[in-house]
Amino acid sequence: MSEQFHVVPNELRGYSELLDRNAQHFLTIKDHAISKGGDTSGFTGLLTLLHPVVTGVANLYGETLDFANKMMLKDSGALKKTADSYEKVDLHGVQLMQKAGGGR
Question: 87 Cβ partners below 8 Å, 6+ apart?
């Protein structure tokens, strides 16, 4: 069974740009989480024992957001390559049809 579908390379590039923008939000969230969520400046007395725990959790959360950012950027790059690939195949098909038709 042959499946037929229509791909618009510019739409793939648009999705890629959306992923790029969304990936940047992860970095903004990371900065906020580490600076605000990992702030232990008010911890006094027994709460000082929690400094390494809070800092560790904030850093782990930051690393997770870095990973999410990298994966989104990787997917964005893959979409761009896919769009380029579809355009190359389409161009090749047009060239073959022009050769077969004698350049009409």
Answer: 9
